[in-house]
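One-letter codes give the sequence; backbone shape is given numerically. An example follows:

. . .
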Amino acid sequence: MSKTLFVVGTGTDIGKTYISGLIVKKLHESGSAAAYYKAAMSGNVRRADGSLVPGDALFVKEISGISQPLVEMCPYIYETAVSPHLASRIEGNPVQMEVVLEGFRNSCDNYEYVTLEGSGGILCPICFDEGELWLPDVIRACGAGCLLIADAGLGTINSVGLTAFYMKEHGIPLRGIVFNHFKPGDVMQEDNLKMCEHLTGSKVIACVREGDTELNISVEDLKRLYE
């Protein structure tokens, strides 16, 4: 059976896709059959023929080198750069859980490790008008533990703490934390790391600096997050 991990963030534009790409790359280069999956992507551009390019999926595919077809990576793609519930209100084609799960199960049937990525922060609305669906509903339906991506800078103690508290209260397993935009030796960021670990009881499993092309964690430790 496929092993899964859900990448969530303390907010939007926090680096979830970038970190997801590094994760999938490490798994792929270790010889594992690795896949990427995201229920809904907003803020995508159009090709000359009018079709939308799933930008996050394309980034992960290119940085990781996986052969997984783009069409398998995301069932819902929107042009408007807002949360999926509002994008579908503007453009149509609202997210349906059964469609999301069908694509997810297909990935699980064909790949050993499936890395899922959420939209926005933990409280991102995925669908609202046609039926209420939030990111935690997708996470629980997929039965995956989570890796929390956070900016290493000012304010992260609060954002990490609140996100972790919400996840715990709603039965969503937190496997670890990754600090993005990390500056080694920065007194505040080093303290943020310690405080976030103390506050959440979860380890910061990797720190990613600007321009990193590798995730600083062993393949063995990374794979354990999927168990």
Summary: The chain has one domain: 3-224.
